[in-house]
Amino acid sequence: MREERFRHRLDVFYLATIGYGVTLITYVAIRGLWVDDRFELVWKDPIVY
């Protein structure tokens, strides 16, 4: 059988997306928990929206 090869490697894009998501979740957790000493959903922060 002939082995198929993909034209583009997308693993870099998947890793970047996962890294961005983890960074955003970490930022929201730090902003909500440690800065204000209570957890609130940070919807009015300019980075979140």
What report would you give on this structure?
With 49 residues, the protein is mainly α. The protein has a domain at 10-37. The protein is built from 1 helix and no strands. The protein has one helix spanning 11-35. The longest helix has 25 residues, at 11-35.
Main sheet specs: none
Record field, number of beta strands: 0
The N- and C-terminal alpha carbons lie at a distance of 50 Å
Helix content: 40-55%
Round the mean pLDDT to the nearest integer and report it.
Answer: 75
SSE pattern, N- to C-terminal: H
Report the C-alpha radius of gyration, rounded.
18 Å
- Structural class of the helix and strand makeup? mainly alpha
Could you tell me the strand content as a percent range?
A: under 5%
The geometry reads as: rod-shaped
Name the poorly predicted regions: none
Could you write a compact summary of the structure shown?
The protein contains one helix and no strands.
Features:
single chain; mainly alpha; 49 residues
Element layout with pairings:
Elements: H1 11-35
